[in-house]
Fold these 4 entries.
Entry 1:
Amino acid sequence: MKQGRFRSGLFDALPLWLGVVPFGFVYAAVGRRAGLSIWEIQLMSVLVYAGGAQFTVVRLVAERAPRHFLIVATALINLRHVLYGVSLAPHLKAVRAGVRALAAFFIVDESYGLGMRAFLAGRGSASYLVGAGVSLYLAWNVGTALGILFTAALPDPRNLGLDLVFPLTFAALLAPLLRQARNRWAALTAFIAGLVVVPALPAGVGFVAATMLGMLGGMWVRD
Amino acid sequence: MTDTIVAMAVATFLTRAIGLWGTPLRAPWVLRAVGLVPVAAFAVLVSANLELRPGAWFRWLIVALGGWLSWRGVPVWACLGIGLALYLVGSSIFR
């Protein structure tokens, strides 16, 4: 792996710590309330590293759902990663299997966003993708650890507006891709589908359905 | 619970790895569809984090502003910083 590119990914993801750390914090606080032990809360952040799935699992634990439900829910919510992987695969086909596995472990929405934007701008690499992923991984785990230590100290990040970090980041990542008509139609269809379909379907399934509708919306347009 | 967490980690890793190790894609329409994944996914990640309610207009405005700044060539970290600063100031005024 190239150290310079790795470092670029690491630093480019730093502004996102603003949104990720507080949510790691909240996840830990909610996990404690659901009855998970400190060890289980941190272990989930270390091994699973998937915010949306972890929040859902904590809710299911609080509702005393059977254990296999937790595993199925995790897989469903993370289905979108399959699409991310498919779109990253052409850029990583020359990369060694070990590095590709490492890159796979660190794929989350935000690292995919930064990594894919770098690939589309012609400056992407596996090192950059892993660097961004490691940065966000550290943020998520630091947030979780802080949440375990100081459960009652921080107000809900939504009250501070920090949840805006996520749509704002993805809007900034999306905008430069809208110069082609096909991309504009795909984005418009996906945006509307995201508003309508995501809240109506089970977590994870709605995201995949809305993304695929967006892809269909762009497929028919000629540039 | 530790066993369940490990199984969740394996399930998550598989969702991340399957696409990367998937079958080679050659058909033109498949390549075109795959090329649209980031655009469609980013758009869903924006709209799924917004809400359709009257009081949310200021959040929509800030997100649109962030997109416009990025369109004009402003780096993502700066769009984020400007957007959050305006949101914090603005939401205290409009509250």
Note: Chain B has five helices and no strands.
Entry 2:
Amino acid sequence: MRLTAWEEERLLIFSAAELARRHREAGLRLNAPEAIALICDAMLEAARAGADHDEVEAAGYEAVGTDAVLPGVTALVPEVRLEVLMDDGTRLVVLHEPLGPAGDDAPGAVRQAEPAERNDRRDRLEVEVTNTSTRVVRVSSHYPFERVNRRLEFDRPSAAGHRLDIEAGSTERWAPGETRTVRLIRVR
Amino acid sequence: MRPLSPNERLARYGPTVGDRIRLADTDLWIRVAEDRQAPGDEPIWGYAKTIRPRATQGGASDSELDVVVAGVIVLDPILGAIKADIGIKEGRIVGVGRAGSDVLTEGIDLRIGPHTQPIMGYGLIATPGAIDSHVHLISPELLPAALSGGVTTLITAGFEEPPWGMARTLAGISDWPVNVGLQACARAEDDGPLQALLDAGACGFKIHEDYGAYPELIDHVLRFADARDVTVSLHTDGLHESAELEDTVAAIAGRTVHAYHVEGSGGGHVPDVIGLVREPNVICSSTTPTVPFGMHAAAEQVPMIALNHGASMGVEADVALVRERVHPATMAAEGPLHELGAIAIVNSDSQGMGRMMETVRRTFQLAHVMGSWHGTARGDDPYDATDRVLRYLAKVTVEPAITHGIADHVGSLRPGRLADIVLWEPAYVGVKPALVLKGGMAAWAPLGDGNATVERAEPTRYRGDWGGRPRAAGSLSATFVSSAATGSPELRRLGRQVIAVRRTRGLTRESLARNRAVAQIEVDVGDGSVDLDGQRLAMEPVREVPLSRLYLLR
């Protein structure tokens, strides 16, 4: 058989899924490892039978119903990552909330407070920016704005010491030829 | 650019000040007291994110971090529950504060530079690696169990000696990403054999009734330990062959002792060893099987005691001896005494009447259960059990660290400590960690398919990461010894940090962080029931615990 560790891992998923099936047939509701094993097993079997990417994904989403798991388990499975063997080779499938959304006050839930007032008195200014490029240009939150791609045209000297006034890790987008006004904020 | 919705903010930055987080499937919620990050300047790694030159990464400098755990909820028995960045340099924590670049942000105390490895902690909870202060290193199978349960420091409770065996045990464990300190069984009332144990690397002594826990031995070992600043842990005379409780207390004579499994079924004066909670100089712990007191806690005890203490289930007299140690009435008082803070520590008693992977899990289970005990004060806010959570977290982190003279190195995420950090998703806190950092390196985690295009593709299983591999793991870990052995060439050759325990003597409950109570209980010497101020101290055995069925395949 010349089994690699990768193939042995398939057997581990199979064993866990078999155990989960036995528990389900005995009328027991499933816990998180059992539900994940069944989801993975369903996707691997679909791929083995020649299913395409969408069908494999669907097999994963349909494998375990919300009613089949113990209360709270939904919140323990926010995502499942699995590589299956499709007819064109190994492919990644990622399921988002395969058992559904976690629900209020589920295990690990966060109750958000009212956002605190921010007393940020740093100077802000607005600039009109035109994208003269033939490509889409995006600029991220903390890039020094005076140093952006030279194909963005605006009053560059005024932007010295500023960045985009958007949340950390967000971007502004300019389509080719687009002119838009954005707000900048002084760093520090 | 549309601003993020509250849910999107949570997904990108995790919880912040004022937010409340439910710990896994327990009834315990914590409230984030403070956010030390600069709002708007969060350091985030990735596509279009901010940890880059010209953004939250500054230039190279001597103070630049080796590792930053960004935006994590720090849950620490001393620091409390706060959102912060954790800065790590040369394997130790240098700060819990605000990381980034001075060019960009005011108030930066942790500098991200071109050599800083970012670990995204957003949405995760960071606790100190737990300390299990009652480990028997019966087999190496304990080590994956410890790490998978969030334990990164093991203080043993004897049976690795004599020195010949201790040397080989320390060699065998040297490639694991755990700190270790051996407490060796004191079996002699003279100095020579005790000194030999310290010279071989013991960080303290265990007095165990199976090797004699006689008053004269207790007195001698304490006198020896007081002179050398090492710990003494005690499993008292359950037979009453040489001493009863008051004789043991008299022999201790006000000196510092860590009393193990004071509930009693783990061993010790039958049935009133729990009376040691009256003594301020005695720091008391309890072991995993009866934490929390469950409906089947008593049923498993008889075979467990017999198998761990050389008794035979086929010998009627042995079974009778063992049965006398099991007192459900005392087990019922154990939880309340933890809630009051009179029992300070939870530890496993691994493979010697306890479960290595469950020290942290059971401590959180107990915190959950005791929230509904009738003696527990009802707070105004059902969504804020932060104080209780920190008190229980302390039982497996800072309290054993103080007790064993290692609080400068482990037990908290304060600056200066080893960067032994357990990261948890809130839905999994206390039962299955997301990542265990040992000395700042990823050492243990549910790793996935090695062929996959992404990390953590199924099947995910707990395994050693790079920091958990031979040669790396040892250099990231400490062996705790007495000052007699810090220069030992044999120990240094193992490639680990060799660190002496300090300030182990003269400790009382007042020396601890959050479990300082002294309870003047009365113990019924018939059934072991416990009264405090004329009231019975007892909880009902629990039928069901959180952090269990939802999470564990079995």
Note: The radius of gyration of chain B is 23 Å.
Entry 3:
Amino acid sequence: MPTDPAPSLLEVRNVTVEFATHEGTVRAVTEVDFNLAAGETLAIVGESGSGKSQMLLSLLGLTARNGRISGSARFKGEELVGASAKRLNQIRGAEIGFVFQDPMTSLNPYLTIAQQITEPLTVHRRVDQAAAREQAIEMLQAVHITEPERRMRQYPHQLSGGMRQRVAIAMALICRPSLLIADEPTTALDVTVQAQVLALLREIRQQFGTAVILVTHDLGVIAEVADRVNVMYAGRIVETGPVDEIFYNCRHPYTQALERSIPQLDVSRLDRLVAIAGSPPSLLHVPPGCAFHPRCPYRFDPCDKKVPPLEIVAEGHSKACFYEGALDHQPQAETGMTEIA
Amino acid sequence: MTQSAQTTAAPQVPAATQPILSVRDLRVYFEIRAAEGWLTKSQTLRAVDGVTFDLFPGETLGVVGESGCGKSTMARAVLGLVPVTSGEVIFDGKNLAQLDSSAMRAERQHLQIIFQDPLASLDPRMTVGQIIGEPLRSFFPRMSASERQAKVAEMMGHVGLLPEQINRYPHEFSGGQAQRIGIARALILRPEVVICDEPVSALDVSIKAQILNLLSDLQARFGLSLLFIAHDLASVRHASRRVMVLYLGKVMELAPWQEIYRTPLHPYTQALIAAIPPADPRRARSNPAKPLAGELPSPIAPPSGCVFRTRCPYAIDRCAAEVPALRHVGESLVACHLAEQSQESRPKPSPTNS
């Protein structure tokens, strides 16, 4: 599968994440494999419950207590699965930065921007206060915060939502990590502010060479910033490939359905959207075989019996689907009334 | 061209018909106490500041604007859920803004709302049947339980819920199904006007399309007039023929969809469209989503003149001095001093940075 010559920054092999609940074992992530090259932007797309966030959280030891991770994840050659809490603490913040959907997940309402943005530097890099302050102001300028000296004295509630997210990004980048994980960083933002954050993510890559894993359900966001895309459904990667392949030559029916269901601005035509019937499955009751088969217009004999393996269809492009024909079905007129209970 | 233009904004598209809902110069101000040094001082927050529009029978009017533009407050004010400071909300010959609470309650049979967060808007301790049937119980207390049950079951069918789900609780449903419950509850009284306050913003992509399609089916079946509020133009596009763009409590532009998309006249509408990422990697590389410079001003101290001027690339001196009237330009209603000028003859955009 590794087709690019660039050395991998992160190699994920056969990672499975399970949670013990009183209703049984929930498998949030199943046998996931992927590589991330240095400086690359990888988007992970999927709907609620597809395992896209859990996979990343568990790699860094941030799973809930009832969670269990197996498999292997090597970051710069170092195994993360089973690493000590102390070592993971050193890696998080210093080597791998995190940005969440709600910036208030990472910002403390009781501390000034200066106090929180300099903390990673004093903790991980043992930089003295004055130098930390200087670097913090530089980083705030890099994320286009105006009047950084004044902002440093303020508290998070005094900033707008877009500014808070930019401060959260500055904080995640302050130790110059080689990997930034951004979990739905623009979902809670207005579209004009989202555009600011997307432009910023592109600049970060150019300026600092940071690799980015971007978790999102928004294909518009992916088209703007991603080099490569992993499409996840019910805990598995169902398609992976370069961004252009995924958009112009997708091979998995779920990817196609996702692309067709996006509301488009410049449609001249029918007002009806092509919806995917049914809803994403509950992870307690994942359908047998291919988890997408109950919603798939192309399903045939083996789909409800065997799990399709992820197989290469073109360079760097793989899919997990038995159907080999062209994805040309005009999906049946969906009435919005066919939801499966 | 001055004050009167704000209040006489004439109906546009369906020329002959009477509007079902007319909103005239609606204002919602909140008195808040803001800290100023050691003291607190009473200040006025202008959430909705002179909004005028008509909603016609059977149409969907899209309302678009970003956080803090007053769209949700406007919706709540129409339904009397927040006090109206001034202005009129005319429905069925009555000014709803002047009704007392019991008279307003009676009118709510005809005007209903669907909320953004489906699960948060459903009582977790009530069954689906009780939730959907509650409006019937409260408006028709003498209706028999079996009749109510029958109406609930029928409505569940209309929104794509199964009859056997009637005794289940909200937590047993996915987000999309919970939104169907919210829709059934809003429609059970057969209202004429339904306000949809970001009904799909919290839903997954595949479910979003289902719910948008369902709303348009139900609109056709029941002849509903919808006020469809969203923060993104793309969702509104699939629901609405006309779109109203709000910024800082004021109408910037109100126009048929094609005009909004092809020839947006207001610089704010142009910025909203330019900020949408195109879901097409080649186009995204050649023409990436463009951020809007600057920050939203405070509604406590809005800019003088045009409220958008602090972020507008075309702003001229007049924009700070004079509030632009909402007026007809072609098929659109626009509040911009430069709306009559073609794009080319406008002043050069000033280099902007945030």
Note: The domain at 3-110+191-278+288-334 of chain B is CATH 3.40.50.300 (Rossmann fold).
Entry 4:
Amino acid sequence: MKHRAALALALLAMALVPLAGRDYYTTLMLPFFAYGIALFGLNLLFGYTGVLSFGHALFVAVGAYTAAYLTSAFGILHFEVILLVAIGAAVVVAIPVGLLCIRYVKIYFGMLTLAFGMLFYSFLYKFYHLTGGDEGMRVLRPTLLGQSFPTLDKVGFLTGPYYYYSLALLVIATFVMWRVVRSPLGLSLRSIRENPDKAQYVGVSVRRYRFFAFVIAAVFGAVGGALLSIPTGLVDPLLAYWTHSGNLVFMLLLGGFTNFFGPILGAFVFIFLQDQVMSLTQYWRLVFGAILAVVVIFFPHGLMGLVDPRRRAGT
Amino acid sequence: MIEAALAIVLGGVFNAAILFLVSAGLQLVFGVQKIVNLACGSFYALGAYFGISAVQWALGAGTPRPLFLAVLLLSGVALAAIGPVIERLLRTIYARDESFQMLLTFALVLMFEDILRIVWGPRTHVMGGGLYTLYGQLPFGAVKIPVYNLLVILAALAIAILMGLFLARTRFGRIVRATAENREMSEALGVDMARVYARVFTLGTALGTVGGALVVTSTAASLDMGIELIVDAFAVVVIGGLGSMRGAFVGALIVGVLKAVSIATYPELELMAVYMIVIAVLVLRPAGLFARATA
């Protein structure tokens, strides 16, 4: 009951943010929504299945470039179409990549996913005529549910309709992920995390379920990526770079991978802390590196581990 | 035509020599400590910046110019002093899952980038002073290869041979191999694990910093050189097999020459060609070309 109240309160607060009239902070919420969705996917792999991907940014980039391609190259502005195509593209990429990656666990899985991320990065970076190379591609303002909001300027669009659209997507993504981890699939994934051999022995097809988790994670990554690209208005190959994947893992660990809501908290704290630290010093990497080191060494369960130490992921 | 091709390959071998040094450090640390050290690229960048400063200081203090290569080597070795400090930090989570250890080294990557920015500033640094061509150049048809490149290749070869002898023949080398094979057993036999880890990590650090110090004469020291190098070093260890020294050697040659050839023929494929091979190796021989049965 307490948790439901906290959840309702957080949702209400998020819905009220644009009304405060601080457009700067309202637009800062948009990457938070996007990363929150992408991190749900990453945590399905790490927190629930027990394999850490160092290439999740690949799927964020797939989603972002889908949005760029459809809006700039094909003139398709319906955001619902963009999301569906991004999901389709993520599945198409995730099937071969996943089939190869899920054969490995532990550090090999991390290395292989990193390799695929860098392969995609080099494609985006080098194939200039297709992807715009290091200059990237522009993302045009999409229409939401068929509405183009011609009277709103960019900030008005982002802090108004797009804000609530993103928030709604985050709520839907949360709900879907909640159902996924509570489903028999989620239970199987947790059994794989705890003991793959035993899971296999009692009849859980370890590879098949890891593969499902991989594809679902990719879909969440791509939806997050598409959402992320609109406020920026530009996509570039660095979206797929390995350090971006590293930052995603950072956010997840900061929030706490052992808690269902850890990814959301991690994305939120990372985005706003980064904004604050960057306004204080240009050396934000030093500060963030130190924070990550402290989290890894002393608080491996992240902020959620401090707030709610009893609750393990999915228990 | 043949000469031009040879020059390209030689350029690739130069890259391979540097890449071997850094990858050998990565392999040594992984082989013994089972840590994928993402920060080895940061050591490499640190070696490059520090190398320039050391050479400028040494030449200013009256060291004869031809000795700058020795100064670079020494500066790289001296930098290994940071190894034990960082190993002490990593020691706190040896008992933890490998993913956390990799993440801690990612934290180091973030911190090092800003430490370099604070000490040396955001701009790129070049050696300058004509040191790159100081030892002369060998003509290969239309292109000239600096003798410096050949000296670095020889130095890397010498280091490779010394490392091989060290691991095969010395007492400490045997302990290192035994620890890589079976940590609990070596500990049970009385090996002081803390000391072995500290030394191995320091040696791995030194290989990275020396690599950075040697490369900087031919290019420039920049803030992103470390995270860029990781991508190649990573390819090397996957192709060669995690933890294998011979693998680092062969992997570095493959990656170095492949990159040089694809830059000369079809530059779009530079990194892609490397990663295609990485993925092919992972699919066909998941443990790498030279992995031991245990890996």
Note: Chain A has 15 helices and two strands.
